Amino acid sequence: MKKLLLVFCILIESANAEFVLVDYKDQKHLFEKNKNDRIVSVECLKKECSANTFHFKKVKIKDGEDPAAVACLETKQAKIIQMHDGKHNEESVCLFDDGSMLTFGSMRILVSD
């Protein structure tokens, strides 16, 4: 039980981390929380991009579907990619046509009831 609690606390702490380094196809991308509490690729902090400004509509999901995945696929301007942090922790990301990225964790807050 103590181990489970420790893992839970680590997950909460990492979810609130200011910077997250994510590795995809041997390319490293840095993510940071923007002023709207979206965790976006750092390039979006300096310029206008879809990850900062895209307005997601509330989505209807079926049992077991990830609301962030459904919202990303419904935009028609983005696709889902899997990344990892080099420590065997995976993160799903919505990659927009302009190259900007938004983590699924941020998207779930935007699209959930």
How would you summarize the topology of this molecule?
Blueprint: H1 2-15, E1 19-24, E2 27-33, E3 39-41, H2 50-53, H3 67-74, E4 78-84, E5 90-96, E6 101-103, H4 104-111
Antiparallel strand pairs: 1-2, 2-3, 4-5, 5-6
Structure in words:
- This protein is an alpha+beta fold and 113 residues long.
- Strand 5 and strand 6 form a beta hairpin.
- The termini are far apart.
Summary, kept brief:
This protein is an alpha+beta fold and 113 residues long. The chain has 4 helices and 6 strands, in the order H-E-E-E-H-H-E-E-E-H. It is 30% helix and 29% strand.
C-alpha end-to-end distance: 31 Å
The rough form would be described as: globular
Order of helices and strands: HEEEHHEEEH
Strands of the largest sheet, in order across it? 1-2-3
Structural class: alpha+beta
Largest beta-sheet characterization:
3 strands, antiparallel
Roughly what fraction of the amino acids lie in strands? 25-35%
What would you report as the Rg, rounded to the nearest angstrom?
Answer: 14 Å
- Average pLDDT confidence is 78
Q: Which features does this protein show?
A:
29% strand; 6 strands; 3-stranded antiparallel β-sheet; alpha+beta; 113 residues; disordered N terminus; 4 helices
